[in-house]
Design a protein that fits this description.
This protein is α/β, with parallel strands linked by helices and about 425 residues long. It contains 16 helices and 14 strands. Strand 2 and strand 3 form a beta hairpin. The termini are far apart. The relative contact order is 0.17. Bound molecules: D-glucarate (GKR) and magnesium ion (MG).
Length: about 425
Amino acid sequence: MRISEIHITPVAVPDPPLLNAAGLHAPYALRIVIEIVSADGLSGWGEIPGSEATRAALDHAAEHLIGLDPWRLNAIDGVLESLAKPDERGATPWDQRTWVHVRSAIEVACFDLMAKSVGRPVVDLLGGPARERVPFAAYLFYKYEGAGGELAVGLDETAAGWFVARQAAALDPEGIVAQAEAMVAQYGFKSIKLKGGVFEPQVEVDSILALRDSFGPEMPLRLDPNAIWRVDTAIAAGKQLEGVLEYYEDPVRGQANMAAVARALDIPLATNMCTTSFADLPGSVAHQSEAIILSDHHFWGGFRASLDLARFCAVFGRGMSMHSNSHLGISLAAMTHLAAAAPNLTYEVDSHYPWQDGHDLLVEPLHFEDGAIAVPRNPGLGIEVDRAKLASLHKQYLACGLTERNDEIEMQKVQPGWTFQPTRW
Ligand code: GKR
Ligand code: MG
């Protein structure tokens, strides 16, 4: 098998005004879709967060991959290794490294190709399913009223439930409970995560307590302030949430600070910010910075790297969960295959998908049933990309004028002078 063409398409997908520690989501979230075509006419697909730097790196990498065999991933890794430039994660809630994204996009598309060529689902090449259905978590955000791009229009008098709640403001505990009720009713999620780091810590603690009152102790709850609290703030907030939170995600910045909070509280700490690469693993062991690591194939460099992380978690007694950013159905399918193949990924997986639902580029979007997605059994990732929808999301990218995610600039449009502070409270 040989790679004969690689197509890289930046797209923009409508995204509501969601608040987070770094500011505000723009009306469109950027993704890059990659299609690798083999000489025998098969297409393999991948999807990663979009930015101009990532697109340029992917373009550059693509030139060196034509003619290679998608089954020879070690050779492809070697080529990418030789091209990669040093880069850093940065202080934002999301990972800004370019080359982990490039590796991930290419590896996922190669797995889609390999699996299609033998008529098996990707999960079978990853060791086979440890579970047939992957459970996901409700992902709540404080938000301003409205919804991004085309999501903001088209609500008629028949619209109801989640599709109306997605437009509503959620700026206090009552708003968060209403959002949770609508999302859980629509998708059947059995676990809830609240994105924090937005308001005074007590408002966020009160939101979690309000969720507990509304859903009862059977509903696991998570809070993620994206590392903008000080150690004393995180401990004071955490004391009120002992026995309430399933896990406390990145309350503070850095492995040593995470370890200090972990020692003071009887709540498991989780991270997608302090232990985010293989180079961080010795520090994780030395500090005991977290009990749970959120994997993410976009950030760890693909499926195989994520399964290596799973092995680390198993050996070093870490639980494993999965992180997300605003995304489309190619990523959702990849997340589902990977989560199914990692036996120790026992937590409900994060997904922003309900915020984009209805605007996907798949012919048949994947569906949450009772909070879970059935692992596709069709060959490859088990999805078919609708090329007309891909073209229209690309047109939207060209029209929207955004070339990278910058939540600070977006927030300044609403609150002039607002700046992102890596530690705020
Ligand atoms: O979408 O605003 C967001 C989140 O804050 C996201 O960027 C984070 O990467 O989901 C994320 C997290 O768990 O930290
Ligand atoms: Mg997080």
